Amino acid sequence: MTPHRQVTSKEIFMGKLPFGSDLTEGLTNVCTERNITLGRIKAIGAVQSAKIGFYNQKSREYEFISFDQPMEITDLTGNVSLRDGKTFVHAHVTLADNAGKTFGGHLAPGTVVFACEFVIEAFAGPQFERTYDEETGLTLWSLE
Ligand code: ZN
């Protein structure tokens, strides 16, 4: 059977992140403050600069791309689970430059918020804990 669990929507929080804050850290802080350990995240807004990752499946390492320029967050989609027993936010972003050209990838620390409006939905259900996955080299949900 395809590994999955049933979860139910518990609470939804809407807010904005402070100017100049770190995007990943800001979203993680909201989850920690609200005791959210399971859920999903959506956000839009703009960044002053950005750092996104691409996972090289051969070398099993992230390759990072940095953008030292303002960009729109045309979409941010993420989830919330546990890693080492702590709230862990995993998000991917699509960013657009001043020509509307988009870039996307794994959201990395080092992305600086200009403005960000987020919606975080907390789920009730079994905990999703991340553990090392041999096949991919990633830290994935352990659902066995
Ligand atoms: Zn990712």
List the helices and strands and how they pair.
Blueprint: E1 8-17, H1 23-33, E2 39-56, E3 61-67, E4 71-83, E5 86-96, E6 102-107, E7 112-124, E8 129-132, E9 139-141
Parallel strand pairs: 4-8
Antiparallel strand pairs: 1-7, 2-3, 2-4, 2-6, 2-7, 4-5, 5-6, 8-9
The chain binds zinc ion.
Report on this model:
- The chain has 144 residues and is mostly beta strands.
- The protein has one domain (16-141): Hypothetical protein, similar to alpha- acetolactate decarboxylase, domain 2 (60s Ribosomal Protein L30, Chain: A), CATH 3.30.1330.
- The chain has one helix and nine strands.
- Strands 1, 2, 3, 4, 5, 6, 7, 8 and 9 form a nine-stranded mixed β-sheet that branches.
- The longest helix is centred in the N-terminal third of the chain and has 11 residues, at 23-33.
- The protein is globular, with a radius of gyration of 15 Å.
- The mean pLDDT is 97.
- The chain binds zinc ion.
- Residues 90, 92, 106 line the site of zinc ion (ZN).
- The tally of structural domains comes to 1
Which molecules are bound besides the chains? zinc ion
Task: Indicate the mean pLDDT.
Answer: 97
- Tell me, briefly, the overall form: globular
SSE ordering: EHEEEEEEEE
Q: Radius of gyration from the CA trace? A: 15 Å
CATH architecture: 2-Layer Sandwich
Q: Strand percentage, roughly?
A: over 45%
| CATH class bucket | Alpha Beta
Task: Classify the fold: give the CATH topology.
Answer: 60s Ribosomal Protein L30, Chain: A
Low-confidence stretches: none
